[in-house]
Amino acid sequence: MLYDNGFEQLVNQPTRECNTLDLFLTNCPDLIPRVEIIPGLSDHNIPYCEINTSFRGKCQTQRQIPLYARADWDSLRAAAEDLSTELQVKKSSHSTDELWSTFKDKLLAAIKKFIPHKTARPQNNLPWITPNIRRLINKRDRKYRRMKKTGSAKLREEYKSLRRTIQRQIRRSYWSYLNSIFTEDSNTCQVNNKRSRKPFKRSYVLHGHTLETVSTVKYLGTTMSENATWDTHINTMVTKANKTLGFLRRNLKISSVSIKEKAYKAFVRPVLEYASSVWDPHTKKNTDKIEAVQRRAARFVLNRFHNTSSVSSMLSTLGWQSLKQRRKTARLGTLFKIHHGIVQCPVISSKLVPPPTRQRRKHNCQFKQITTRTLCRDGSFLPRTIKDWNSLPAVTVEAATVDTFVSRASAS
Fold first, then answer.
1. pLDDT digits (tens, 9 = 90+) for 114-171
2. What span, in angstroms and rounded, lies between the C-alpha atoms of 10 and 19?
3. Fewer CB under 10 Å: which end of the chain, C or N?
4. Closest Cα partner for 59 from 134, 125, 129, 127?
5. CA trace torsion 236, 242, 248, 249 (10° rounding)
6. Strand-pair partners of 36
7. SS3 12
């Protein structure tokens, strides 16, 4: 089938044991000078390919921008009325294509006549080409044309000197532009952990600029704090979820329960569960704050906003599991994947050791509980999830697949 469609498969060595699981298809094999297999982080090797290609940037072209503030709307309305009258007269004697051509041509002509336009110049300059460098480039081009026209040796030397000056300034401006990305006003910063008994304070320098020390920083969608808590992240996440739910209430004014339920599960609940295995709160204050969003969503879905209505019965009617239980299931699912090597995390895998033999076990896959000094550490992912894992029944822990484990863990 590949050869019938003009493709060629270039990976001819096994990538996992004796099987070739990775394919590289191309219809231009001459552009691929090198294909080899290199060792990976697990039992799955990595196909390494080199491709000879070049990037072709698309240059902007001049475009017309209408100036609606200076348009002659009265004349445009009159032209539209005349066009409507003309189409009414021609509709019985002309085809649909002819009427459409007449409508389009006359309307575009009226827009061009009664709405002024301005021409936008293309912006193709590199950001480090400053106006001063641009003036020097124009001066170099003029001197080059004069040199080619006259053949003067003096102009040739002046041209070469100017060309070297421009090259030096471009290099200097280029590196200055790169360094400006890492200034103190940028998002490059550091967070020190202040929960430690002996906080380790250190200043880091990147491209000659000392990184600013901040109390919170957003990384990969989560907000980390210097006190090692997730209060700031949860507050930001709940605010965003409430705004999204408010948007749905204002714009989704329908009575269909199923559609509103799908809207909640598609737009609001993913915000509340993004990376929940990492930040799952252990305090009642943060847990109730997150659950309050789902309780508001239940009122929205069932359209029951009276203060005497029972939200618990609404959740039971909808069959929604609490977000706390869903986060617990997500944590257990993540630990299951790490334990079985589906997700490679050597730092956590090295701490999943069996408990002492004298300890009573509920199943044969229990792990040694991690000793902690603070409640914050005890409520973090690994110590907390190991406790939940050890309390699971044996039939759940011995599940063969992730889906089976998640379904049993969710029901337990």
1. 999 988 776 666 888 888 999 999 999 999 999 999 989 999 999 999 999 999 999 9
2. 15
3. N
4. 125
5. -160
6. 48
7. coil
- Burial class of 260 by CB neighbour count within 10 A (0 to 12, 13 to 18, 19+): buried
Q: Is 409 helix (H, G, I), strand (E, B) or coil?
A: helix
Residue type, 349: S
Return the pLDDT at 185: 47
Q: Where are the alpha helices (DSSP H) in 18-95?
A: 73-90
pLDDT at position 189 over 90: no
Bridge partners (DSSP) of residue 216 are: 225
Lowest mean pLDDT among 5-14, 187-196, 257-266, 269-278: 187-196
User: Is residue 102 within 8 Å of 82, Cβ to Cβ?
Assistant: no
Q: Which burial class, exposed, middle or buried, applies to 356 when counting CB atoms under 10 A from its CB (0-12, 13-18, 19+)?
A: exposed
The alpha carbons of the chain give a radius of gyration, in whole angstroms, of: 33
- The per-residue pLDDT of the chain, averaged, comes to 85
CB of 385 closer than 8 Å to CB of 331: yes
Q: The whole model's pTM is what?
A: 0.54
What number of other Cβ atoms are within 10 A of residue 329's Cβ? Answer: 22
Q: According to DSSP H, which parts of 8-130 are helical?
A: 73-90, 96-114
* Cα 241 to Cα 127, 254, 303, 334, 372, distances in angstroms: 38, 20, 19, 24, 33
What's the rounded mean pLDDT across residues 55-67? 76
Contact 140, 164 (CB under 8 A): no
DSSP secondary structure code for residue 267 in this structure: I
User: Of 223, 213, 231, 322, whose CA–CA distance to 274 is shortest?
Assistant: 223
DSSP string over 106-171: HHHHHHHHHS-EEEEPP----TT--HHHHHHHHHHHHHHHHHHHH--HHHHHHHHHHHHHHHHHHH
| Percent of the chain whose pLDDT exceeds 90 | 36
Whether residue 40 has pLDDT greater than 60: yes
Identity of the amino acid at 354: P
For the chain, give the number of residues: 412
Distances (CA, A) of 272 to 149, 282, 407: 71, 15, 20
d(CA 326, CA 338): 19
Alpha-carbon distance 83 to 75, whole Å? 12
Q: What is the pLDDT of residue 182?
A: 55
| Predicted pLDDT at 115 | 92
